[in-house]
Design brief:
Elements lengths: L4 H9 L7 E11 L2 E11 L4 E5 L6 H9 L6 E7 L5 E3 L7 E4 L11 H9 L10 H7 L15 H13 L5 E5 L7 H14 L4 E5 L3 H4 L4 E4 L5
Helix pairs in contact: 5-6
Length: about 220
């Protein structure tokens, strides 16, 4: 049986690391009288990658935020399933996931080194990679002690990706993950996914083919209107 040393270490330190699936059952979300999506019945599985696609304003980000537990469903339910039949309701799923999105802010008074160290105090980073190595991996080794407020938008996005990708959790949620990135940034994004996320459940919300071309499955939000 194949074992992953990285996952074995994480499991010892965090018993909730192992995940069997995420299940949405007849899930729907509305704002006032307008349904953003409805009757969503989907199962997501570890080690696979999924893309949520659709036009701008169609509700891709809303569905991703519901999966993250930051938005409460208007109907139906979402459950994170663990090995042995254990289940976690949506509001507790933050323990399993990390997320990068344009609307999630960094603490700009901190340096990148300080920010990732602070982040690791409440969500453990992968044990085999030091903060300084992470910042070198994303090309910020010469700016790791500079306050984030002085970073370009592309540099900030690299930090957002780093805190999400290197968090030692089984689920990675990415909402338009290459926002503000140049060609080199896109290449970095794909390298991080390939190198560090092969065993994770990855869900990407995007209508940019270059952000989701690695995904095993495409889910159109327009199918749930």
């Amino acid at each position: 049986m194949h074992t992953n040393p990285q996952q074995d270490i994480a499991t010892q330190k965090n018993p909730s690391y192992r995940l069997s699936n995420i299940v949405l059952t007849d899930a729907g979300k509305r704002f006032n009288r307008d349904w953003i999506f409805r009757h969503v019945n989907i199962s997501f599985y570890p080690g696979r990658s999924y893309a949520i696609t659709g036009p701008n304003g169609s509700g891709k980000s809303t569905l991703l935020q519901a999966i993250s537990g930051s938005l409460q469903l208007s109907e139906g339910k979402m459950q994170y399933g663990g090995e042995g039949g254990t289940e976690t309701e949506g509001e507790q799923c933050y323990r399993y996931l990390s997320m990068a999105a344009p609307y999630l802010d960094l603490i700009e008074e901190m340096s990148a080194r300080e920010f990732l160290s602070f982040h690791s105090s409440f969500k453990q980073l992968m044990t085999m990679v030091a903060v300084e190595d992470i910042l070198s991996e994303i090309g910020l080794e010469n700016a790791m002690d500079k306050q984030i407020r002085y970073y370009s938008s592309g540099m900030k996005q690299r930090v957002k990706l780093a805190q999400a990708v290197f968090s030692d959790v089984p689920v990675l949620l990415l909402d338009e993950p290459c926002t503000n990135l140049d060609k080199a940034g896109y290449a970095l994004y794909h390298r991080l996914i390939e190198k560090y996320c092969s065993d994770k459940l990855v869900i990407v919300s995007s209508n940019d083919i270059n952000e989701m071309d690695f995904c095993n499955e495409k889910i159109s939000i327009t199918d749930f209107k």
